[in-house]
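The record is passed on directly below:
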Amino acid sequence: MYYDYPEEEFYPESEYQEQIDALKEVIKSSVKSEILEEMNRLRAENEKLQGIKEHFEEVKKDYEKKKDECDRIIRNAEYNAKKMRLADLMKDHKVIKWKVSWEFVYGPKCDKCDSDRAIEIKLPSGKIVKDSCKCKTDSKRYYYPKRYVLSEFTDRYGDGKITAHYSEEGSKNDTYYELYSSTVCDKYTEDRKKEAIESLSDEVKSILFNEEEECQKVCDKLNEGLGNFLYKNNGESIKEYLKMAKRE
């Protein structure tokens, strides 16, 4: 005898569906967890790579900075070596030029104030303050010849025009003048130089003189009208000050 039982009696739909739904949730949860883990892994890896990239840029900048510093040191070493060789070759045959220089000068100083021309004043409150002394004046310029020594030759622009470098004695600052036809001269033509000397224009302060006496004559003209402004701020005679500086 054959009995026809409904299918749902053997496979209850509700129980089957619950199992399916539960399995779906497990799969979803597993997949979601894996995706989140992968996303977190990729995010961490990206942050790490970003950090490496930024660090690489810092390392690259530091390298370029150190490379530039190294190149600068090498250039300075080569430059100093050339200067030393030239100085050694010319130590017994120095090429000397003279250029107008200047110092600030003031009027005579009294004996009542300090080295900065200040005096102490007692206020009614008893407080002691400092004030400028009556002998404190505005400054003027006292011009004098300063000695320069040939220190280097260069072809700066690669055009065959040689430049002679004259260094102020006791200073690392170089003053540049050009060579024409193997004759040392400044950047002015003779006519322009003569005009500058006669008019005492500002250009005269940039001219190189062959002789100290020639330069001194220009300085004397520039110093005309100084009157008694012949002292340093501390009261020392400017002429005595320059004599001492020259001995040193």
In short: The first strand starts at residue 96 and ends at 105. The chain has five helices and seven strands.
